[in-house]
Amino acid sequence: MKKRTDYHFELPEALIAQTPLAERSASRLLCLDGATGRLADRQFRQLPQLLEPGDLLVFNDTRVVPARLHGRKETGGRVEVMVERVIGPRHCLAHVRASKTPGPGTRIQVGDTHWLTVVGREEGLFELSLAAGSLTELMDAQGHMPLPPYIRREDGADDRTRYQTVYAREPGAVAAPTAGLHFDDAVMSALAERGIAQARVTLHVGAGTFQPVRVDDLDQHRMHSEWLRVDADCCRQIAETRARGGRVVAVGTTAVRSLETAAAGGELEPFEGETRLFIRPGYRFRVVDRLITNFHLPESTLLMLVCAFAGYEQTLAAYRHAVEQAYRFFSYGDAMLIDPAPGARQTRREA
């Protein structure tokens, strides 16, 4: 499974969810046992009963910012700015779409009074400088929620809350950690009552998560960079979970990449910085015991991560079942609860 095309599957466009359900936890939950390939159709609100007291859920607490800005060049041409990363009160790295690629010194008007200036380029992103005020205030006032490209509508007022997890805390993402969108206050309370602990990591999801893999030979693929933090408290909670015999359940692929990056040296340690970790079949997981995740794009690195955890054949069979049963796909779609395939996790002897 070293080719991009090995991860293709047919998906009817009608199954791509365009809007969220009225209730977050009303989503469906497909349970996959990677050891046997066994599948079970559940409801997401049943999750607390599918976990055990003493387990630990690890959430990504990043908060999506209204990063899409519409503006005009001084010549009048329309420009769309997608802020990828704020690097200072008035500076950011961004994707810029315009009829002609803007060069250094190009000024972009956003709203009536705000001006962004192109400073330069860095790894395909434009560095922009805001003349006055703060980027955070500009995005709050003029920005739109950065809905994924497969959601073919403009963002609405509801997306400010629904394209955001209920536990979002640290602003900086331009895409939601979508596995967390199913959790509501009722589910969170039920988890606590059942004795299931919670920990937090932060990974600011970038727009690169939607960029297609452009090479067929996966050995040639270079992952986009994302900033993350795993703190000492999270590491302590995981150690305590292991000591009591509980399991570490990652909520989303971003939580997986955070934990596995922090454990790349062999032991889980606090980590803050960039990651380009590319997880695909053959990878041995050091930290994660179970995974909650949404359904992902064909030929995407996220689907490859799931195949590494649940097994290639098991994962694609589960996706075929999901299509046959009309599960809702992608960001506003349904979810999976996955137990690992044999050999997916690193043994203590290998550690």
From TrEMBL:
<dbReference type="GO" id="GO:0005737">
    <property type="term" value="C:cytoplasm"/>
</dbReference>
<comment type="pathway">
    <text>tRNA modification; tRNA-queuosine biosynthesis.</text>
</comment>
<dbReference type="Pfam" id="PF02547">
    <property type="entry name" value="Queuosine_synth"/>
</dbReference>
<keyword id="KW-0808">Transferase</keyword>
<keyword id="KW-0671">Queuosine biosynthesis</keyword>
<keyword id="KW-0963">Cytoplasm</keyword>
<protein>
    <recommendedName>
        <fullName>S-adenosylmethionine:tRNA ribosyltransferase-isomerase</fullName>
        <ecNumber>2.4.99.17</ecNumber>
    </recommendedName>
</protein>
<comment type="function">
    <text>Transfers and isomerizes the ribose moiety from AdoMet to the 7-aminomethyl group of 7-deazaguanine (preQ1-tRNA) to give epoxyqueuosine (oQ-tRNA).</text>
</comment>
<keyword id="KW-0328">Glycosyltransferase</keyword>
<dbReference type="GO" id="GO:0051075">
    <property type="term" value="F:S-adenosylmethionine:tRNA ribosyltransferase-isomerase activity"/>
</dbReference>
<dbReference type="InterPro" id="IPR042119">
    <property type="entry name" value="QueA_dom2"/>
</dbReference>
<dbReference type="GO" id="GO:0008616">
    <property type="term" value="P:tRNA queuosine(34) biosynthetic process"/>
</dbReference>
<comment type="similarity">
    <text>Belongs to the QueA family.</text>
</comment>
<keyword id="KW-0949">S-adenosyl-L-methionine</keyword>
<dbReference type="InterPro" id="IPR003699">
    <property type="entry name" value="QueA"/>
</dbReference>
<dbReference type="InterPro" id="IPR042118">
    <property type="entry name" value="QueA_dom1"/>
</dbReference>
<comment type="subunit">
    <text>Monomer.</text>
</comment>
<dbReference type="InterPro" id="IPR036100">
    <property type="entry name" value="QueA_sf"/>
</dbReference>
